[in-house]
Amino acid sequence: MQSVLLANLSQAKEQQQAEHIAFQLLDIYPNTDLIELPSNWLYRIMITPYLDHCHIVRITVQPNLGNSVTQDRWYCY
Questions:
Q1: Where would I find the Prepilin peptidase dependent protein C-like C-terminal domain in this sequence (predicted)?
Q2: Strand order in the sheet with 54-62
Q3: CATH number of the domain residue 27 falls in
């Protein structure tokens, strides 16, 4: 029982950290190479043009445990 609780706590902590990193990556976009991810974590950036002067940036962070986290932000110029 205790090991299950510890595993769930560890997974929840990683999810929270992944959310934080996703927002950090959006805050510094397009300079995303400035962020150092924890070992064996991955992130993916997808850019979708929208209208003439905007695009949507979607960042997905995949931690070791748990589900990936995705955040979007609009950039218009």
A1: 3-76
A2: 42-50, 54-62, 69-76
A3: 3.30.1300
| Domain interval for residue 2 | 1-76
Residues with Cβ within 8 Å of 60's Cβ and at least 6 positions away in sequence, in order, are 22, 43, 44, 46, 68, 69, 70
- The pTM score is 0.86
Encode pLDDT of 44-62 as tens digits. 999 999 989 999 999 999 9
Residue 44's Cβ-count burial label (10 Å; 0-12, 13-18, 19+) is: exposed
